[in-house]
Amino acid sequence: MAIADRQQRSSEKKVFSLCPFWQTSAKMNNSSSTQNLNHNGNRHTETVTAKRSKTVYSIARSLLPPRRRLRLDPTNNLYFPYEPGTQARSAIRLKNTSKSHVAFKFQTTAPKSCFMSPPGGILAPGESIIATVFKFVERPENDEVQVDLKSRDKFKIMSLKVTVGVDYLPELFDEQRDQVTIERILRVVFLDVVRPSPALEKLRRQLAEAEVALEARKKPPSDTGPRVVGEGLVIDEWKERREKYLARQQVEAVDST
Prior knowledge:
Blueprint: H1 2-18, H2 21-63, E1 70-73, E2 77-81, E3 87-96, E4 101-108, E5 114-117, E6 120-123, E7 128-136, E8 150-162, H3 172-175, E9 181-191, H4 198-217, H5 231-256
Parallel strand pairs: 2-9
Antiparallel strand pairs: 1-3, 3-7, 4-6, 4-8, 5-7, 8-9
């Protein structure tokens, strides 16, 4: 019986040795499975690493202060001469201090009584522009003397890096919201026109420069300089609204007397 078993195993061994491709096929299958496992493992590791890197970058970016592209003058406030019942003007200079083209945009918390000229545009590297800000100064109730010359109105200036040749559109700031930088939020401060001050003298100089710049923008557009869109429509609409408001104030004053 033992002799028969040995003979059977010997014959199976001979048959297996006569078919070496069985051994090769088995080795190739084992090697292929190992490679697939290693490939899937590496791909999973790379995916996890990429997600972690993206998360770390987002957190680090949120903690870092925003990189400003514009230099503003004045820096923190917008100064207006305090003349109740009139349209007051302020001016601010913007300069592109980055190495790329930058789009800028104004926003205000009081769109019914304030507007900017220009409301937005594109500045080349090193280019500057002086913008005019208009605000209607309402009369205090019962003609009381205004003690606090600060206003709750605010202006926000935003910037966005753009490529050369791109035309300015306000929608750019919505389409690339993640790339928008809030340059500054400016508070409105009124200046007493009766009392001379360095801030009032500086404002008058900037307003004179802004007037010259506004006249230059009224000329046919050229290839250089910031591109402004829809400025005339905004100004005309605001002037019409202001005239109606002044007429209503005069009627109320006559009725009260």
